[in-house]
Write a structure and sequence with these properties.
The chain has 106 residues and is mainly α. Helices cover 86% and strands 0% of the residues.
């Protein structure tokens, strides 16, 4: 008898879920329905889900910002490194030129 009752409840729940376009039947929904009853379809759950999605989007945006800043810092440090490398090369070339001039003068 218990199994038949559960089967009927599942069928009824599936038919109710079909009436709502944003509700998809799942085992999780069945458990939620068994725990909360009809309030499983209430707007409160939709509002909580909406708030959770907003938080996820906000966290995602924050992560994107951090990644963007890190890329910017990497690019800036790379440019500084290249500039210092050029300066070192110029200094080395000047030292070599001075050394060669010194050798010619002897």
């Amino acid at each position: 008898m218990g199994n038949n009752s559960l089967s009927n409840t599942e069928k009824n729940l599936r038919s109710i879920a079909k009436r709502y376009e944003n509700v998809k039947y799942s085992v999780g929904l069945a458990v939620l329905f068994l725990m909360n009853g009809a309030s499983a379809f209430s707007n409160t759950n939709a509002v909580q889900e909406s708030e959770r999605q907003k938080e996820v989007a906000k966290d995602s945006q924050a992560e994107k910002t951090v990644v963007k800043e890190a890329k910017s810092e990497k690019k800036e440090s790379s440019q500084k490194l290249k500039a210092s490398w050029v300066i070192c090369n110029l200094e080395l070339m000047i030292c070599i030129a001075i050394f060669l001039l010194h050798l010619k003068l002897k």
